[in-house]
Specification:
The structure holds two protein chains of two kinds. By secondary structure, chain A is α+β, with helices and mostly antiparallel strands. Chain A is 34% helix and 26% strand. In chain B, helix 16 packs parallel to helix 24. The chains are: A alpha+beta, B alpha+beta. Chains A and B meet through strand 1, helix 5 and helix 11 of A and strand 4 and helix 25 of B.
Chain lengths: 267, 959
Amino acid sequence: MATKLLMAKSPAEAMDFKTAAAAFLAGGTEINRLGSHIAADADILISLKKCSGLNGIDADGNFVTIGSMCTFQQLAESDKVPEYLKEAARFMASRTKRNMATIGGNIAAMRTDSYLLPVLFAVCARVDVLTAEGKQNICINSFMEAAQAGEEMLIIAVIVPEKIKVVSKRYANTAQSHAVLTMSSAITEKGFTLAAAVKNCGIFRFRTFEDMIRKDPDISEEDALAFFKGADSLKISDDMFGSEEYKRYLMGVTAYDFCRKLVGKEV
Amino acid sequence: MINCTINGKKRSFDIDPTCRLREMLLMNGNFAVRDSDDAEGFCGSDTVLLDGTPVFSNLVLAGEVEGCEIRTPDSLGNSMNLTVIQQALVDAGVVQSAYNAPAAALIMTWLFENNPNPTREDVKDALSGIFIRDAGYEHYYLAAELIKEKLSGGEYKTEIAPEFRPELKAVGKVLPKIDAPQLVSGERAFVEDYVDEDTCYMVVLRSPYASAYVNKIDTSKAEALPGVVKIITAYNCPDVTYMSAGQGNPEPSPHDRRLLNKKVRHVGDRVAAVIAETLEEAIKARDLIEVEYEPLGAVFTVEEAMAEGAPLVHNGKVQYNAGAPDDLDEYNSKLSGDEREGKVVYQFPLHGDILHNVAAANHGFIGDVDKAFAEADAVVEATYQTSQIQHTPLETHICFSKLENGRLIIYASTQVPYHVRRIVSWVTGLSENKIHVIKTRVGGGYGSKQDILVEDLTAYATFATGRPVLYHNTREEEFIANSTRHPMRVHVKMGGKKDGSITGIYLKVDANTGPYGNHALTVPMNSCSKTLPLFKCDNMKYDLTIYYTNTPPAGAYQGYGTPKGTYGLMMAMCELAEKLGVDYKEMVLKNHVEEGYMLEILKGLGEGREGNVVPVGSCGLREAVEKGCEMIEWGKREESGDPDWKIGKGFAMIMQGSGLPGLDHANAITKLEMDGSIIVTSGAADIGTGLDTIIAKVTSDILCVPMDRITVISGDTDSGAFDTGSYASSGTFFSGNAAVVAATNLKEKILEEAAMQMVEDIEDLEILWPGEVRSAKTGKVLSYYEIIHTSTSGTGRGHLIAPGSFTTAGSSVPYGAHFAQVAVNIRTGEIKVQKFYAIQDAGTPINPEAALCQMYGASLKSIGHTLYEDMILDKDGNCVNANMTDYGVPMISEQPDDFKAVLIDVNDEHGPFGAKSISEIACNGAAPAIGNAIHDACGVWMRSWPMTPEKLLKELGRL
């Protein structure tokens, strides 16, 4: 349990403060939340609330750069933020929580019920991070891999494409419950993408499925269901959120709907 | 040092910066910033404005607010000077149990300061982080309209609620709930607000096992810690067997627990209580207690409990305080009799059989159901399963106790102050005059505070240590160590004729009471006694069996067992209608009871005693069905425009009771004060529903005294007279009627006194507004002030005080019908409740706006029960979703877009000014209404709560 709070004034200072025993504190809705393992594991919290340069939103016509300390509510209200990201931000149903939770915090928490990660994966978002070696720009997927490997990084900004077709869907018991499944799909420069956050299982980018759709956009529902039913590489388990069968079924039916909406005959 | 501005004043705090902002605000005296979820960021009780933005103060660290501006709910108006926004919340009727009312008022203030003309969507968004369990959200939208009207035009234009009984000035009128100003402004109101500074904290060590003997407890390391005052275990607590249900004594529930048992019977059961100077010290000591458990086999479902050779939840001796069977010794010889098991004591026979895990049972019938089924043109038979549900009151269970001059003073958030006193008396051995229970305002009860779940141990801790002690459940403890709604398996068989008449009904209920028998018989009994009397049917039979298991305990829950019975019966009736080819509405209209119909079925349904067979009294059932069908356009098929989404409609007729005639008892004492104002001391326990206001209103109309000259003091065992408490929908009917009797008696005394003072015949005198007596013969007038002034003078005849006591065999039964329109996605299993209409006969609604809010609140709660609320246990009996987010409760986002509550005007013979109960019944209709609507939409019968998308997909054959 944290016994010390450090208020970083800049990203560089935050990185200077960072040790193995310390954790970055963004909006507080995850780390300060009941049951948070991050707070339990950290001796020191480094608050980013007064950090300069992490709160802007800039658009250049192609990409939108969002400071990591921008709150979900800022995303929802900004004219510069694309609608698909606003929608994902609004998946967080509590306004009070949206006033606090930040885009950077939600990414860094890497929760399997993440509001934002599926759509950020689907649109191939990139992040500016500060590491011991300096500032880097990496794709969201690389960030996740590096973070899971324990690399010390501070998210400075998130960069997302501005004009892109995206669909998302979130399944949860109630608007405020943790989602059993959040899925997003997009048409990027490279074509159809599909990503999902499956509660207690992981964040996935379904590249095999994407390749299948790129070859034949007019997939049948049966084929989509069969793909997710038989995707052995996906480790899905039964839990209080639903059975493995249910989760795989939902992924299949949702993936099929996304295909219809983005690349199939319905378009 | 942390410097910030709180409510416009600069403040500095020498505080650990990793402390939560809420802690800092409590230090500053801002106690209306409350906590309902242990910093989960869910309920919103801890909401403050940080630099002008609503945030959860439990999720902000103190060190982060350096230089910030903070605004708390108590910065708004006080109870004598409410702001327009606070007043609108009061007027709209949403300030009920009100634990979150100050936070909601702050949010609404923020909303209007930033947007003077908010839309419905804006209000929904603003309140999306506030959990309201009691009143629902619909009247928050109304409040927003009232605020807009008041701010723009200086007065309300929108009708708040319909009014009733034009001949009366208070009853049936939209008047502010009398405790609402205190509650909305965040003044001291709840137990936590009355805790003394030198108070010790108590925490409880809880069992990690579902069933185990506690063979040894080593508390030596814990006791060696500084600050530890005492540790109570099964080995040093009184050997008193009792149970937690606050019911009339002798209770129709087995006494089967002690303060702490040598056998734990569920994960979360009490093992030891640690009392220490600080909470931190208590927790640290708790972690040092070493316990030697002997794990035992456990059962979690009725199926497991009834299995041959199943582990026995209670395996000690059985005793009867009355009516012991002749073969009791032989029976006891078959039980282990292990001393660690304790004993099970029945106050009178409840047909329990602990050798088969049966806590209680009941069976009865009228007519001949077998013959009725044989003669039927069609018979349906199905089993319906309901889940274990938590009440989730915003204020978790709490108790503060202290000693004063050899008396135990107990501040309790309870529905049953007098039962608290009795059970604490049993546990401590103190006589009841040595115990003073003060019921504070109650931040949500819903039945869970009818059980004495924390007061027994807290009071004993004070008794044993002499120290003031505070105990406060965590939210997790609220799930695992409190009472919950009984899971039940309801089997229904129903037969009918082609003309739509029902020939026979058989109801078999197997209920899971968990490890202890509080309310074991009576909750499941309500699944029959408050459902079967809906039907005009000569052949009915019921079999109730209640099983002990090792789940978290069950107990009283708003609606008691009625929602479960209603669910099974109304679903079966809908299925039977379809099978017979009869319209469901026509079948309902053909079979429902009407005024005067003799309810023979009640003879065996008397809470363990013989029941009263009475005729149906006032009954607005038919009107409710007709009205709802008209509103929802029954019979009209709706199309969604999307082939995946199918729309259907359903409804259910419902009933409840108004207290327990022949069992319940209420008293009030009404006094004429020296200036002619009135003080009523009532034994009643207002749990936020407006009972004190009801008492004030009936007193006002009987004595012709304005509401603001009447004060009600209730729930205080020292000042009031006995009342069985607020449960079984008894408050309005029993406590309200006691107030009617007391006011009527005082009226007689006033008239007698006036007659003497005026030297006139009493027959010539009448009472007039605003508190005076007039002679019709002479025209002479004496004010109440003049009358009491003389009667209490040196030559007067004494203070005018009148008691009122109320018992009855009469029954005031509320009826109604609830309607749902749902949209079902047949590919994803998603279910949306688009419309929900609650149509109810509440007799004369004494507080109409509060009544509507209670209908909204209970209906929304029941929609949650129907669709997602479910305590999930793992194979070892651990509740895996013991927090608000994972458990899932309906918030403003879940409210149906079209949500209406309608009161049917019925004037009841027995109720005070014709009133019946209002709130509990509103829990009964959602499950069958939604279940039948789902069937109408997509053809499947959902026979299990919660009706989840996964279950629906299975029924549809998609999984």
